Amino acid sequence: MLEYVISQHGMMTLMDELEDVDDQSKDLAYDVYRALQKKLELPRGEQEALGRLRGCVENAKRWDPALLRNNIFKAAHSLGIRLPSGMF
Known about the structure:
The protein has 88 residues and is an all-alpha fold. It has helices at residues 8-18, 23-39, 44-58, 65-78.
């Protein structure tokens, strides 16, 4: 979940910038990142649903309505939400 907000690449860039300059801040930044990562960890089904919904939001104008529907139904299914038509 945290990777949606702070990319691993961005975190590595920060760590590189602090390398040999401020070891305490570098180590503490890593500890903060790991602590947040653990706090924001979602179960697999919720991660899948988040990814599918994010894909739909980002590609709403490019994806065919059938693809949007398929991903929305799969996201709901991943969360255990009752589907309106019973299945996808």
